[in-house]
Design goal:
Pfam families: Nakanori. InterPro entries: Jasmonate-induced_protein, Nakanori. This is 23 kDa jasmonate-induced protein-like. This protein is an alpha+beta fold. It has a single domain, classed as Mutm (Fpg) Protein, Chain: A, domain 2, CATH 2.60.270.20. It is 20% helix and 39% strand. Strands 1, 2, 4, 6, 10, 11 and 12 form a 7-stranded mixed β-sheet that branches. It has a 5-stranded antiparallel β-sheet with strand order 5-3-7-8-9, covered by helices on one side. The radius of gyration is 17 Å and the shape is globular.
C-alpha cells in the first residue's frame, strides 16, 4: 500500500461477510459497503493526520490539505492533474486508490503572492463497465473566498484541454459542489481560511442516499 493511501480495500469478501445470502455481488454493492465503511478502522483519521503532518513540515503559506475517498466499487487510477497556481508538495498524488480507501496529499502555493488552485482526475468505472473520469478541483486565492468544483465525464475526456473553461466554473463556485453523470457521483467541499481541508468523495449514483 502506498504511504499516502489509507484503509483496507472493500472487496467481494467483505460484502459476503456482511450479506452472506447475496450471490451476485456488483460494483454497486461494493460501493455501498465502502461508503458505509468510510470511517472504519480510523482510516479517515489516518489520512487527516498524514496531511496535517505534511502541512506542519511545510510551514506557513497557502495550502490545500486534500483528502479523497473511493467508494466507486472498483479501483480508481490517477490520470492527470492541472495546476493553475501552485504544486503538490513532498508526497505524490496516489497512483491507485482501491475501493474503500482514502488518499491524502498537500498542495501548496507557488509564492507569497499567489494561491493554490488545481484539479486532479481519477479514472474508473460507472458500475456497468463504462470508463469514466472523476475530476476534483479546488481554489484558495491569495485574496478572496475559497472554491470547490467537481464533474464527471467519459474516460479520457480531460486529455483535451478544457482547463480554461473549468477554471471559470471553479471560480464561480462556493465551498461545496457535486455532480452526477452516467451512473457516477462526486461531491467536494473545502473549508475557509488559507490552509483548509479539501475533501472529495468519488462514488456511484444513489450510493450516498441509499437506505
Amino acid at each position: 500500500m502506498a504511504g499516502n493511501v489509507f484503509g483496507n480495500p472493500v472487496t467481494d469478501e467483505l460484502v459476503k461477510q456482511l450479506y452472506p445470502n447475496k450471490t451476485n455481488i456488483t460494483s454497486k454493492d461494493r460501493a455501498e459497503v465502502a461508503f458505509q465503511f468510510i470511517n472504519s478502522g480510523g482510516k479517515d483519521v489516518d489520512a487527516k493526520n498524514f496531511v496535517y503532518g505534511l502541512k506542519e513540515q511545510y510551514g506557513n503559506g497557502i495550502s490545500a490539505k486534500c483528502m479523497i475517498y473511493n467508494a466507486t466499487g472498483d479501483t480508481l487510477t490517477y490520470s492527470r492533474k492541472h495546476d493553475w497556481h501552485g504544486h503538490i508538495w513532498q508526497s505524490p498524488y496516489p497512483a491507485k486508490i482501491q475501493n474503500g480507501q482514502w488518499g491524502a496529499f498537500l498542495h501548496v502555493h507557488p509564492s507569497w503572492f499567489a494561491g493554490s488552485e488545481s484539479a486532479i482526475v481519477y479514472r474508473g468505472f460507472n458500475g456497468n463497465g463504462y470508463l469514466c473520469d472523476w475530476m476534483l478541483s479546488w481554489g484558495i486565492p491569495y485574496i478572496g473566498d475559497n472554491h470547490a468544483y467537481t464533474e464527471i465525464r467519459e474516460g479520457h475526456h480531460y486529455e483535451t484541454d478544457h482547463w480554461d473553461y473549468i477554471q471559470g466554473l471553479l471560480e464561480g463556485q462556493s465551498t461545496k459542489d457535486d455532480d452526477t453523470w452516467n451512473g457516477c457521483y462526486s461531491v467536494v467541499t473545502i473549508g475557509e481560511g488559507t490552509s483548509p481541508e479539501f475533501v472529495g468523495i468519488m462514488t456511484l449514483e444513489g450510493v450516498t442516499t441509499s437506505k
